[in-house]
Amino acid sequence: MPKIEQIHAREVFDSRGKPTIEVEIRCADSRAGRAIVPSGASTGRFEACELRDGDTNRFGGNGVLQAVSHVNHEIAAALTGMDAADQQSIDRALCDLDGTENKSRLGANAILGVSLAAAHAAAEAQQLPLWKHFAQLWQSAADLGQFPPPTAALGQQPLMPLPMVNMISGGLHAGRNLDFQDYLILPVGATSYREALEWIITIYHRLGRLLTEKGYEGVLVGDEGGYGPKLTSNVQAVELVIEAIEACGLKPGTDVAIGLDVASSHFYDGTHYRLAATGDERLNSGDVIDLLEKWVSAYPIVSIEDGLAEDDWEGWQELTRRLGDRAQLIGDDLFVTNRRRLEKGLELAAGNSVLIKVNQIGTVWETFETLRLALQNGFWPVVSARSGETEDHTIADLAVATAAGQIKIGSIARSERLVKYNQLLRLEEQVGHDAYQGGRIFSALKS
Ligand SMILES: C=C(OP(=O)(O)O)C(=O)O
Ligand SMILES: [Mg+2]
To answer: For residue 328, what pLDDT is reported?
Structure first.
């Protein structure tokens, strides 16, 4: 048993230059395992609580020295001597120690840093690559069984994920140049992860040239590295991405499909969805569903995230009735990787897919629980980064180990994203090209 000997946290910085927490855990006779916590900008209201210092004399109140102190004192005292490989007990101890529903006392950032670093430390101590340690944990966690369609192929043996990659950024990630947050591509026709990534890189560069040729900003990028042009409408972004796919000799829909992260909670005023790009157009849920249905019919869109707001359960039910067999409908702000919110979604038949962000819930084990619940109920999971990221590649290993099937990390032109894409290239050498479902995971969708 790799016994925890030392836990140490420090304040470091993320890709937006915002403070975040790094945790190192050392077990006897081994190198320390280290993890850095990501941070969102378009956060859901029901996410676990990130503890920030609030002292406006330091980084506008965004410092994380209190969270650091919680790790170095209270958490270190409680966890020293525990088995780093017993993730379930570590995560339970962290939750019990915090004692709140949303991890607001010690901070979800403090808790997640320790939870992730424990996994790294356990892998180090057992001389295992992280993905293999995660795979052991995932497999050991209660009977995986056989999952129902469309997720039957997922969750079993380690699998290379289909990358869903941001080409054009909008919303809170790009100064609200556009209303919708992400215009993504899914290389559904690629036969390996490497091929998928090569297509993505080619299309990304072609899109940049195309934007510049048309007089738009083809070099400025948003928080996740997607281009951030000021276009005349939201739908124009879809059309430009399709044009770039075609310009690369690839077939939209067959080779490369389109995804959206509407991130609609962030332009919902409680009554209306307000689209600034089309002159403060005010839509209700039904209007947004009509719009999305029109787009799904007109364009090869196979995935829509947060098409409606985080509280609009009735709207989500209608969206799912209308589009659930034609597109993956991902709940991000809606489910916030929280088992209880996902249970509600399953009960109400709201959505058919869940975004998995480790810092929305705050521990590895709870992330596994939400993932398993999704797979058991035929929901597609998509492991996701945050808009504030670092050199930490943990989620790439986690996506492969749990065979989640899809990953969303942002674009390829920023190092905090590329570190995960490059890690996946390394992992593909270990798990093999065959361990790639690619677009086959969408075979249940009607065209
Ligand atoms: C990654 C996302 O953004 P953020 O991290 O800002 O919530 C998202 O909305 O899916
Ligand atoms: Mg989102």
So the answer is: 98
Helix/strand/coil for 354: strand
Q: Is residue 29 marked as binding?
A: no
Annotated binding-site residue? 357: yes
Q: Any idea where the domains of the chain sit in the sequence? A: 4-128, 141-442
* Ligand 1 atom at minimum distance from 410 CA: 1
CB 280 within 8 A of CB 305: no
Does 357 participate in catalysis according to the annotation? Answer: yes
Give the distance, in angstroms, between the CA of residue 117 and the centroid of all CA atoms in the same chain.
19
Q: What is the mean pLDDT of residues 283-289?
A: 97
Res. 156: pLDDT tops 80: yes
Residue reference for tokens 């006779």 = 29
Segment among 37-41, 138-142, 264-268 with least mean pLDDT: 138-142
For the domain covering 4-128, report its CATH number: 3.30.390.10
For domain 141-442, the CATH architecture is Alpha-Beta Barrel (3.20)
- 3-state class of 202 per DSSP? helix
Separation of 306 CA from ligand 2 center, angstroms?
A: 6
Ligand 2 centroid – CA 181 distance (Å): 8
The yes-or-no answer on residue 103 being catalytic is no
